[in-house]
Structures are given as structure tokens and as C-alpha cells.
Amino acid sequence: MGDAKVLADHSAHAITLRGTSKTYGPVTALHPIDLTVDKGEFLTLLGPSGSGKTTLLNLIAGAIGPTTGTILLDERDITRMPPRERGIGMVFQNYALMPHMTVFENVAYPLRVRREHPKAIRAKVMESLDRVGLRGLEDRKPRQLSGGQQQRVGIARCIVYSPAIIMMDEPLGALDKNLREQMQGEIKRLHKELGTTIIYVTHDQEEALNMSDRICLLSGGQIVQLGSPDELYFQPRSRFVAEFIGESNLISGRVIGNDRMKIAEDRFILVPKAERIEKSEHLVMVRPEKVRISKLDENTAEGDNVLSGEVVSSSFIGGMTRVTINTENGLSITAKMVSARAHSRPEPASKVRLCWSPSDSVVLEN
Amino acid sequence: MNRSSTIGAQAIFMSPAVLLAATIMLPPLFFILYTSVHGTSLSLHEYREIASSSLFRRTLGTTLVIAVASSVLSVFLAFIVAVHLARQTARRRTILLVLVLLPLWTSILVKCFAFTIILGRDGILNGILSWLFNTKIQLPLVLNRIGLFVGLTNSLVPIAVFPILASVLAIDDSVYRAASIMGAKPARILRTITIPLSLPGILAGLFTTFVYSLGAYIVPSLLGGPRDQMLSNLVDFYNRQVLDWPRAAAISVVLLAMISVFGTPLAFWRQRKGIGGARV
Amino acid sequence: MSKIRDSHSQRYRVFGTALAVIIYIGLLAPLVVTVPMAFGPANTLAFPPQDYSLDLFKIFFFTSGWRGPLFESIKIALAAMAIAMLTGVPAGYWIARHNFVGKRLVTGVIMSPFVVPTVVAALGLYLCFSYAGLSGTMISLVLGHVTVALPFVVLMIIAGVVKLDPNLEFGAELMGAGPIRMFVTVVLPQLIPSLVSSALFAFLISFDEVVISSFLAGPNTITLPVKMFGALQWEVSPVIAAVSSFLMAVSLLVCIVAIALRRGAPLEGER
To answer: Which residues form a coiled coil (chain A) (predicted)?
Structure first.
């Protein structure tokens, strides 16, 4: 673990994409992008379907060739290299295990291809089955295993030959929610233990936030934002990012000075200080869990933005309660609060006051 | 994909088949064309001859009449079978499929032999009729057009069943349920849902059986009479009896041309359908 | 209320089933008729036979006039099957999985025997092989049969490959396997049902082939169907009933194996 971090700090790039794009006839699956993935990094490609994340994955894996640009693996140009020479591992959504081989043979396959000694193969296979907690099942056929176990075989088959990079294409997409969370933890643990670079594809934002060092959010074949889970959640650059990751309230307004915005006639809110073009239109984002609801007679903190309005609906979703409020100036704001018993939750039609700290709001670039 | 490595693999995987295609599948067609125009002299003599030959014209007429009649009838019968098969559970369907598969894969010679036994003057059918009417009946049912028609249709039905069955099975069950909930009776469901939605299969079956019957050779020569011979038999006649290969080749070319004329629009239609529909 | 509709549907259904049963009988009758006759006496051809014996099968299997063609047919069918499989399996896989320049042309030529009338193909092959000086040889018959068996093999392999998960093949390549190794270790084992049925059908197609054989056969290369065709044209001898039953038994065996494999495959995949 420690070794891996040190290695990562010396930071040769594991993967570098330069102006890489893919078009199919008139359809552009991926606009030219530049992307570097550091060694030992856990990078998630996140985006809705058709955003280009699978295209990007397939380009790196070599299932397809790029229309323009180059792909470097560890400073080596692999743009036109056949997949089998790239030394990349891949975990597939539908597991892609060989149905005619046992678990052992499946995991041994990449080593046998490399003509390793049978003894070494046995040892390595057992070690990697150990790592994924499947020792003892080596003589089963894949169809005798549960979905979660099959995907563990898929992972074992991948880590057994220590590929420079492991790509995971929605590996948990076919599993149910509880198992998915458990497997997320295991993949994170393996990543720490092995220090391998992992490129992970998912359309599930929670999974991405939970697992990644960095998230590359894609939309329409372009990178919309690349950064740590924190940055994407707390500093979204655009409306798309704000809406795709987490829930958000968006308030449009016009810049006044360097820390205020006009959101209606005679109505201003405070925003974090920054140089902005006077009178330009911007969206301000506030996360629902940052919005507090208080009774009309309660005092609010100094310097907070305060709006008053009427509760439209209140929905109890377990640990949190989601409350939608229509404000006096015609905005619809959602607030999320830790749930309380029904009698003390805000009731529809009750008048309330909303407030949030200006530092919890983000002015979107556009 | 990765050009150089793929091309190497492609050579290994494809070249044996391409070699066969280039040596024993294309050259025969070329030889026929070449022979029909008397080689390099490119003479259309044979085509003029067959155009004015009454034997050819009569045979062409017989071929078209028999091919159209037997393919239409066989598709009709196959449709009944396909609808019946589609209604069965998967398990029963598999068992019943043997009843269609076995005739499909049994030698045409076996069937022709059987029909001479069944339809002959003293055959089984005449025997049953004689017994029923208590007099000796010797209807001429074989070595004439009836025998040819029966034998050909019999051999075409199993061929047509499979494409039709595939498209009947492809119809979503909920469509039927929706129709019957809305009050449609079975006959209307058949007319407004089953037939239109299985049309691709019906047309495929029609095309296949028609092409097959245009080229029928064994059935007419064993079950048809001397006046019921088809174009294939004429090819054989010029090849074997008259030893006139250019003539035989020219008739072959006409046969091929007929199949292209009837086949191309259908193939085109099916392909357009295919692109628009199932495959994304 | 629902009863009225039910009886209507019921009657409709019974009518459809009755029609289908009549057609099934019509399809099977010609096959069934030959069987009792095959066990009839050697001198007369009558249905039903007056007494039963194995005389016809004895004549079929133990006189050189029938036994020779039977063995000729088996040899030729085995050779044609081998060639069609060796060429058709890799080609079917490649056609199913890859796009390449000339794919339509190559596929079209390979599939052409499906639409080209057999007599036309037979005449073409006859002209070709005469030109090449191969008239009447066993090679010419084998190659002639390959032309009709190959498209079936290719078609059945394509159908089998399309059902496989391409990720398995890509995964194997990513793990370092070359195309041939990947094909042998990943594709072929999964294709076994398709391989067995296409081999059997290739054998059967060649074994039953009449038209091309009758154009190409020489005096020393008479196959069973050619012999039988000749016999049917000139004098219908009772032995033909035994030959017919034999041919039918071969077909039945192939069909049952093919259906068992087709049934086996989805059952395995259900889990």
C-alpha cells in the first residue's frame, strides 16, 4: 500500500490521451479529448448513457481504434497496438466468464496464455482467489455461482496477471443494491492493497463519489468536468454537473457587485465573493441539505440568505425528509433535513422561512 | 480495429472458404455463361434458338405454372402448420418440430418412391378408393401433372414452415392479449395481427419455395409425365441426351435470370425491412 | 359471459389443429409407407406386404450392386463434411464477428447455392470439371458436394456465433491471447452444439445429394442416391424400399441429435 503511494507520487502517467476522438460516419461518439490518468489512481468515467464513457473505455482497451489522436500507456504509444499486447485488464458488466471452464481455469487463462509454469500458475491463481474470498470454489463452473461470486471471479481473473491498468465497465451494474455496496468496498480495498491504476465506468453517481480519486464526468462525447469527488459535488462548474451529481436548487440571477445577485425585483442574495462581470446572468446552486427551514418567528444567523415561503410537499424518504417550498418570489426550493417523527415535520401549506449560508452556494460558470 | 494484426488473422480465417468460393462456386457459373455464348465468339445463337423453340416455351410455361401453384399452396399449408406450432408450449413444439424436420431432411428420392407407391394405378390411394366404393378404381395420379404437383408441394411445405414460424413466434404475446381484451375474435386476430405481422416470414417462404420449385428436377423426372417436364429437366435433356451443352447452358442462364428477376425485389424489400426493424 | 367467447375460440382452435394434423399426416405419410415395405419379400412390391422378412436389407447390404454405392456415398460424405467444416467454421466465425472489404461479395458467393438451381450448379460443375480433366473422379464429387454443404455450415456457425457474448472473445484477447488461440480456447468450446449439428447436416446433405452427383458421377463413382435415382427411373425394384428406410433412419438420427443439441443449449444457459 505504502509502496504504491510512493510510486504514484513519482507520477509517471499510466495513461495519456492526446486529442483522442471517435466518430462513426456522421456520428461523433467522442470529441477530441485530453486526459491523463496517474499511476495508482482510481479514475471513474461517469456519465449518462451515450455520453461517450464506454467509447473512451473501449479506445483505451483497444476494442476500437480512435479516429484522431494518440493513446499512451506508460509513455508508450499504443494507439494502434492490438489489445493482447497492451497488458490491460478488464472487468465486464456481464462478467464474461468462459462458461466451459471452471473458476480455476478462468482465472488461470491469462497466465496460460503467457505460458507460465503450472506451479506458478497454481500459486498465483490461489492467491488471487484468496484476495477476492473465493478460495474453495475453484472447481465450480461459473453458472454454479451467484452474480456477486461471478464478478469476483472476473476480478480475480484480472488481478492475477497484474496488468498495468484495470478497466471496470459497470462491474456492479447487474447486482442488487446491498451487494453492490459491499462489492464497492471490496474493490476499494483491492485498489488500496494492489495499488493498480483503475479506470472505472459507471452511470451511478453515488458509486462514483464513494470510490474514486477523481471523477471524469462526460456528456455528449465531451468531458464536462474532471476532478475529485469533492470538487464535483461542491464546486460544480456547470448546470449539467450540478444536476447530474447530487440534488441541487438552481436560482437564476444577475450579478451586482462582487458578492450579491439580484434574483427578483428588490430581492438580493449573497454569494461567495469573486470577480464577476456586472449584470451578467448566472445560476446559483444550493444543495438541498444546506438549506435550513425555520419557523417564521425564529431568528436566523447573521449574514445568511433568508427567503420565506409556503411548504408545498414534504416527503419522508427514510433518514432524510425532502421538503419542497414555494417562495414568495416564485422560486421552488427543495430542502433536505434529517428526518423527525411525523408530527414535527413541516406540514404542507405551513408558512416557513428558508435560509442558507452564502458560502454554501456556488455561482455556476454558465 | 487494429489493421495489421486483423488482416493476418482474417487471411487465416477467411482464405480457405474464399479459395473454395473462387475455385468451385464461381467458376461453374462462369462456365455456364461462357458456354452459352459459344465461348469467345459471344454468339447469341442459342438464345435465339430457345426463344423460337416450342419445346422450350412449353416447358417454360409448365415451369411457371407449377412453380407458382405449388409455392403458393405450400406457403398456405406451411402457414397453418406454423400457427399451430406457435401455439404449442416450447416443449411440445420441439417434439412436433420433428414432424416437419424429418420430411425436410429426408431424401427427395425417398418421397418420390413413396408417392409412386401411394399414387400409382394399383397404389394405396386407389386401393382405399376401390375399397370405399367397392369397385376397382385406377385413377392416374402419378407420372402426370397431379403427381408432380402433389410431390413438389409436399417437399416444399417443410421448407416454408421455418421462416413463417420464426416470424409468427416473433409476434409479442401481449399484442394478442390486447386484441382479445378489446374484443377481437380469433378470425379478426388472424387477419389483422397474425398475417400482417408474419408477412416477412410468409414472403421469405414464398421466395424460397418459388426459387426451389423453379429449379425442381428430381420430382418432375420421377413423378411427372413426359409433358410435365420442367426447365431443369430440359437442361438435363440437352446435356445428357442431345449432348448440346451450349443449349443446356443457355437454358440455365435463363433459369438464373428468372430467379434474379423474381428474387431481387424481394431480397431488397427484406433487407430494408431488416435495417429498419430488428437490428439496430 | 366469457363462456360464449371461449367456445368460439375453442371451435376455431380445434379447426386449426385439425387442419394442421391433416398436413402433418400428408408430410409424414410418404415416409411411413416405405418402412413396412422394406420388411417385405424380395420379389414383389406391395403395400402392405404379405409377409415380413429381412431379405431386402440383405440384398441392400450384401450385394455389390448396392453395397458399393453405399460405401462410395459414405466416403464422399465424410470427405465433403471434413472440407466444409474446416473451411466453413472459421469463415462463419469471421463473417459473424467482423466487417471487411468484400464481405458482401464473399458471403454472397458462398451462399449462392441457396438460390442457384441445383441443376444449373450441376451443369456448371460438370463443365468445369470436364475442362479440368476431373470428370467422374471422386474428388469432383466431393468438391461438388462441398458447394452445397458449405453454405449450410457457414449459416449454422454464424447463427451459433451470434448467440455468444463477444466480451468473452475480447476479454481473452485483452488477457493476451492471439486470435487463433482465442478461437480455439474460447469460441470453439462454446460452439460445440453448433459444430456437431453442422457436421451432421453437412454429412447428410452430401450423403443424400442426387442432382450434382448424377451429373458428375462416372462408372466407378456411383453414389447411393445416383444408383437409387437410376433404379427409380428404370425399374422400381423392392430393394428401394429398404434403401429408403435406411436413408430415412439416417435423417431421423441427424434430426434428433440436432434437436437434442438445440434443446440442450438453452437449458444450460437458463441458470
So the answer is: none
Residue B227 lies in a domain: yes
Find which of C127, C157, C270 to mutate to test the B interface (most B CBs within 10 Å of its CB): C127
- Split into its structural domains, chain B has a count of 1
| Residue B112 lies inside a defined structural domain of this protein | yes
Tell me if the bond preceding C48 is cis, omega within 30° of 0.
yes
Contacts of A27 in chain B (CB under 8 A): none
pLDDT tens digits, one per residue of A181-221: 999 999 999 999 999 999 999 999 999 999 999 999 999 99
Residue in B closest to C116 by C-alpha: B256
- Grid coordinates given for B230: 420442367
A110·C176 Cβ contact <8 A: yes
Question: Of A21, A56, A65, which is closest to residue A37 (Cα–Cα)?
Answer: A56
CATH number at residue B63: 1.10.3720.10
Q: Is residue B28 part of a domain?
A: no
DSSP 3-state of C111: helix
The mean pLDDT of chain B is 89
Segment A63-84, tens digit of pLDDT: 899 999 999 998 889 998 989 8
- CA A298, CA A355: separation in Å to the nearest integer? 11
Range C63-270 classified under CATH 1.10.1040.10? no
Residue of A nearest to B3 (CA): A80
CA B61 to chain centre: 17
Name every chain B residue with its beta carbon within 8 A of the beta carbon of C158: none
Contact C127 B255 (CB under 8 A): no
The lowest-confidence range among A185-189, A220-224, B191-195 is B191-195
Q: What is the ipTM of this complex?
A: 0.91
Domain enclosing residue B160, as ranges: 44-274
Minimum distance, in Å, between the CA of residue B9 and any CA atom of chain A: 12
- With CB atoms and an 8 Å threshold, state whether B2 touches A80: yes
Tell me the pLDDT of chain C averaged across its residues: 90
What residues contact residue A104 under an 8 Å CB cut-off, 6+ apart?
A125, A129, A138, A139
Specify if B238 maps to a domain. yes
